[in-house]
Amino acid sequence: MNIRGLQTYKKYGTALLMVLIAAILTLIAASGLFRAVDLAASDAFYQSRSASDGKIVLVGIDQKALEEIGPYNQWGRDIIAMVLEALNESEDCRPAAIAVDVLYSGETNAKADAWLAEAAGQYGNVITACAAEFGSALIEDRAGDYYLDTFSITAFEEPYEALKRASSQGHINAMMDTDGILRHHLLKLSLPDGTEVPSLALEAARMYRAYHGMEPVKLPPVDARGFWYLPFCGVPGDLYESISVADLIFGEIPADYFAGKIVLIGPYAAGLQDSYLTAAEHAAPMYGVEFQANAVQALLWEDYKREAGDGIQLAALFAVLLFGLAVFRRKRLRVSTLLWAALCGGSLLLCKVMYSRGLVLHVLWIPVGVTVLYVGGIGFHYVQAALEKRRVTHTFQRYVAPEIVRELLKEDSEALELGGRLTEIAVLFVDVRGFTPMSELLKPTEVVEILNQYLTLISDCILKNGGTLDKFVGDAAMAFWGAPLPQEDYVMNAVKAASDMVEGSKELCEALLKKYGRTVSFGIGVHAGEAVVGNIGSLKRMDYTAIGDTVNTAARLEANAPGGTIYISRAVADVLGDRIRTTSLGGTVKLKGKKEGFEVLVMEEIC
């Protein structure tokens, strides 16, 4: 495969991988794996408290009523009859609607039953409760085929006959979502005989509007099962004014207080077991009568919300994730962070705007998906940077000493800046004697092979002894010790490297003599002193090297050293003392640029 084909393959492979990652995250969202978390976040984000308009009054069967009237299981139906009579004291001040959130099915006490039915029918403004039970059942369709309906009404309870005739009915079914939270309201029941029964809240809202001569209630959008998303106007306790059933029976609240309003009567005590966790508040339960009040308020305000279909949201999620992948993969952390914040913040803002316009979107889908990609992108860049750093390190180590590489790759290192510092170092120069004449007699490939063997030996000796290999110049090399990192015994390390080169060249020389009939040797010079070490050059092209008289002196020593000989300066000899054995040549070796009397020594061996 040619380079262009390889690039095309890589391009399409990367695009396919991005599509696959976006698709996987989209499928995870579609699977509902994090549905409970998303719903909880949506509840916290969307549901907000708002002041009621005062048209709804709750009358509680509360702890006060239980203490003053007696245990609820001992109450007769005459108690609620007295409450209805107190509310409907006269035609002039009666409520627009009275909804009783208590199911009175079957006859119990004839006198009490008759009294309740009479009180309920006095002005035709009472709504009594009914309820259905749901389950699975085989249903016959119009074609005569049967199918299993998992949301079929299997039982239905309604008020006893006299009360049913005297009042309107509304169902009080409160059905929670799969996560145990009540956030939807069932607008109507469709009974098997085709009869439709409105919810208690819907019937109360209808009755209120009819009483005040207003337009009929505009119905909210519902799903296939008849549920609509309920925007709560308050948390538990917000709509309750602490008016007890006992207050009405004992005449503590004037009847005209309820005139023209909707009165909801229902259990408001923990022991009566009529409470639910709702979207308005996950931590505290809301009583059923409060739930009905929130539904009535939303119906009166016609503040309806419709949950957007998952299909269009999943398509949008996929597109956003694909875009995020393309950016996070290529851009730097700062740009990626800004995009992450923009996508998450923009998504939440869009959710808020659309909610105000009646559309409910998934709050977490885009922020969580984008955050996963953002964190993954950081991890990807970190791994990629680590691999690149490793690759660069390995590549650099072929040309320069590992110490230089480590110094250059340090974070916040100043090693890549132009300039240098004055440092005490030892400098070594080495040259292959007799190589140029021999190379004239050999093939170029043979010349390169021999040169590489000698230069490999040189570099191995330098690096083994902790030196910094500065450069190769043809068949010569320069190295120094004591920089970029300080070394305790840098001068000794330099002469050890020189000695290793001389010893190591003997085996190569024998092989060369046997194969070509000619041999070569090293001339080496070592000097120690101050030099400027650092990046020398321009911003576009620089070398990490050492410059100064110390470097020049080492080069002069090497230039005058015969093959197989190591010339050192008095400065090197003084530092090492009796650790090496030397022979002084005095001032007999004239070094270019040096005054008379510069002492040169031959290093014989390391003691």
Account of the 3D structure:
Helix 1 packs across helix 10 and helix 10 packs parallel to helix 12. Strands 16, 17, 18, 19, 20, 21, 22 and 23 form an eight-stranded mixed sheet that branches. Strands 1, 2, 3, 4, 5, 10 and 11 form a seven-stranded mixed sheet that branches. This protein has a two-stranded antiparallel sheet with strand order 6-9. 44% of the residues lie in helices and 24% in strands. The protein is α/β, with parallel strands linked by helices. It has 18 helices and 23 strands.
Flag low-confidence runs: none
Shape descriptor reads rod-shaped
Radius of gyration: 47 Å
Structural category = alpha/beta
Distance between the termini: 60 Å
Fraction of helical residues: 40-55%
Give the biggest sheet: 8 strands, mixed
Q: Please indicate the percent range of residues in DSSP E strands (runs of 2 or more).
A: 15-25%
- Total E-strand runs: 23
Number of helices: 18
Mean pLDDT figure? 88
Structure summarized in a few sentences:
The chain has 607 residues and is α/β, with parallel strands linked by helices.
Q: What are the salient characteristics of this protein?
A:
607 residues, alpha/beta, 7-stranded mixed β-sheet, 18 helices, 24% strand
What are the SSEs and their pairings?
Layout: H1 3-31, H2 35-46, E1 56-61, H3 63-69, H4 77-87, E2 97-100, H5 110-121, E3 126-140, E4 146-157, H6 161-166, E5 168-171, E6 184-186, E7 188-190, E8 196-198, H7 200-211, E9 227-229, E10 243-244, H8 245-249, E11 262-267, E12 275-278, E13 281-287, H9 288-301, E14 306-307, H10 310-330, H11 333-356, E15 359-360, H12 365-396, H13 402-409, E16 419-433, H14 435-439, H15 444-464, E17 468-473, E18 476-481, H16 490-516, E19 521-537, E20 542-547, H17 549-560, E21 565-569, H18 570-576, E22 580-584, E23 600-606
Parallel strand pairs: 1-10, 1-11, 2-3, 2-11, 3-5, 14-15, 19-21
Antiparallel strand pairs: 3-4, 6-9, 7-8, 12-13, 16-18, 16-19, 17-18, 19-20, 21-23, 22-23
Helix pairs in contact: 1-10, 4-5, 7-9, 10-11, 10-12, 11-12, 15-16
